[in-house]
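In response to reviewer comment 3 from the previous cycle, which asked for concrete evidence that the modeling workflow produces usable outputs, we include below a single protein chain processed end to end. The sequence was submitted unchanged, and the resulting structure tokens are shown without manual editing.
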Amino acid sequence: MGRAREAWAGWRADPAARTAALLASADAVEAAGGELAPLLTREQGKPLAESYAEIARTAARLRHFAAMAPESRTIADGRPVRSEIRWRSLGPVAAIVPWNFPLQLASAKFAPALAAGNTVVLKPSPFTPLATRLLGSVLSAVLPEGVLTVVTGREPLGGLLASHPGIRHVTFTGSVPTGRAVAAGAAPGLARVTLELGGNDAAVLLDDVEVEAVADRLFRAAFRNCGQVCMAVKRVYAPARLHARVVEALAERAKTVVVGPGLDPGTELGPVNNAAQLARVERYTARALEEGARAVAGGHRLDRPGYFYAPTILTDVPPDSPVVTEEQFGPVLPVLPYGHLDEAVEAANATRYGLGGSVWGTDLDRAEEVAGRLECGTAWINHHAELSLDQPFAGIKESGVGVAGGPWGFYGNLRPFVVHRPAEGGR
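The workflow returned the following structure tokens.
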């Protein structure tokens, strides 16, 4: 922490040097892709192509935020005073990231923080420390010493970092219980807190949806990264008359998708990342089956070494089953029928989460009207979980506090500083 504090003075003082360093960092990440991607796949489990995509997004974020600079503004309100709003960096930032997208989510935190003139202490998940440490090593070659520091370890490391009096902003992505603990740890020092927490995103299919036309996109939105995505589709609501077709289309894809080690060239879905997460997926699925649900595809662990679970499509699921009401964070998707659209919207909103949601149909104006009724931070039409670097990303309810992404995420790492002086001719 002392290194981060010492480095802050020089880093915040030279915006042009910051921009150059961040652009050089993006180049360095891309150049190291051949080393980073295989390590990320071995450690996290995702297919190699997805690891390369994660590295590309990491570099893209660095370039995106390198181009940002705070804009001063003068307030003219009729008084004989000129008031100018300027922006100052906060100081050392603690970034705590999860294991599902360790590099991409790390860059989503450190890129805007560094661009704003802060220094960063980055803590990866203990399940994925190696790729993050390698990323830190790559960046240390182009960033000044102490500007970005990677620290690894199990708890209480995260708690100690969040509660350290030298930290001025804690940005965390992970579970709701851990997010609460992070916020509590930061409270005594009154550090700013940004929390990106869980999601239980619903996909609402309208009665004019073309099932086969959207099935591939819908399946991908639910099962990318083996379902280990905060904003993945985690439940589907389909009109009763189309329900069987939707289940069949998704089950067909679940049965044919290639599951295997991420380094195998043909693999489309890798394993669940860790034993605890696999146990959670198994527990929620088993309970749903005990309650009367039916696995049209999957519903079981695969008989091979590793944390492999068969992609699972569930039907006849009780709406109050935990696999519907909670975030199981794995390759399991319940598909529920509805009779009236209002019922589907009510069910989609009947959750303590509010990260994202989507509406699928042919009439785009109608779909947009329904999307406007979803209680979430981001709604998509005929796709899901696709983000622009320019947009804000924020959840409501228990899905988060604060905003990431775009200029909103950038200014979230700054504080306003206002200077008042007499107008010309005044005293």
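The first strand starts at residue 73 and ends at 75. We consider this sufficient to address the reviewer's concern, and the full set will be provided in the supplementary archive.
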